[in-house]
Amino acid sequence: MRVFTPGEVAANSTNKYLGVLVAAKYARGLNEFPRDRSSSKEKKLTTRSLEELTSAQIQYRVVPRRRPE
């Protein structure tokens, strides 16, 4: 299992906290797609999403929250 440092995550996102949130949301999205369950060597979705985030394969944008008036 690969260990991702906060510096690696922050390099391709605004900060390490936002990077982890983006990777977690992406992993939840990946979980909705069907997968081949016969492969025992398949990586975990969180590992896969962090790898894609650190290699700049995930494009995201931050949408500001609206405040009720």
Layout of secondary structure:
Layout: H1 6-11, H2 16-31, H3 45-54
Helix pairs in contact: 2-3
The helix count comes to 3
In total, the number of domains comes to 1
Q: How do the SSEs run, as a string of H and E?
A: HHH
What is the 3D form? flat
Number of strands: 0
| Proportion in helices | 40-55%
Unreliable sequence segments: none
C-alpha termini separation:
47 Å
Q: Whole-number average pLDDT?
A: 87
**Percent strand:** under 5%
Question: Class by helix and strand content?
Answer: mainly alpha
> Radius of gyration, Cα only, in angstroms?
14 Å
Biggest sheet architecture? none
Care to describe what's here?
14% of the residues are buried. Helix 2 (16-31) packs across helix 3. It is built from 3 helices and no strands. The mean pLDDT is 87. Helices cover 46% and strands 0% of the residues. By secondary structure, the protein is mainly α. The protein has one domain (6-54).
